[in-house]
Amino acid sequence: MATLKTNTLTGTSIAGSIAVTGEGNSTTTNLQQGLAKHWVNYDSSDQAIGGSFNQSSLTDNAAGDYTSSYTSNLSGAEDKCISTNVWNTSDDASNINAGSTRGGANADQAGDTAQSTSSINWMSYFGSSADANAGNADFDGNYCMTHGDLA
Fold it and tell me: Fewest Cβ atoms nearer than 10 Å: which of 1, 103, 105, 117?
């Protein structure tokens, strides 16, 4: 058994690019491409950030509407992948959110707003039911993660 300890890894042919041999030893994966470049865990009910990475600020625009600004910008406005999700309690302080599968989330750059290299607009919402129409809502756990290349 061997142990490797290091503070820095640098590609030899392209600076900042390291290829990792994949399963079966027949393919390689670029290590930097596979790492999240931004993430945040946000409790919008209490307006508290549970943790974040590469986020300079978070703006709570309105119920279920947030903007995360990156500390280090991405290299391209459209060359990225955003993943969002919510964690829902049984009621979350509002009957419209009651139930274990009442929430969802999406990232959309606020409709017709141009995509950006410095931030992402994302939202959380509840589904419609016999008692309530769907709409944006605040949840205890809102999660947003960005993959892409840093500038």
Answer: 1
**Residue pair 91/99 in contact by the 8 Å Cβ criterion:** no
The predicted-structure confidence for 73-122, as pLDDT tens digits, reads as follows 999 888 888 888 887 665 555 565 655 456 677 776 555 567 889 999 88
Closest to 121 in 3D by CA, of 52, 69, 57, 81: 69
Residue type, 95: N
Tally of residues, the chain: 151
CA 60 vs CA 39, 44, 64, 81: distances in Å: 16, 8, 8, 22
Residues 99-106: contacts with CB under 8 Å, at least 24 apart: 99/129, 101/127, 102/126, 102/127, 102/129, 103/127, 103/137, 103/139, 105/142, 105/143, 105/144
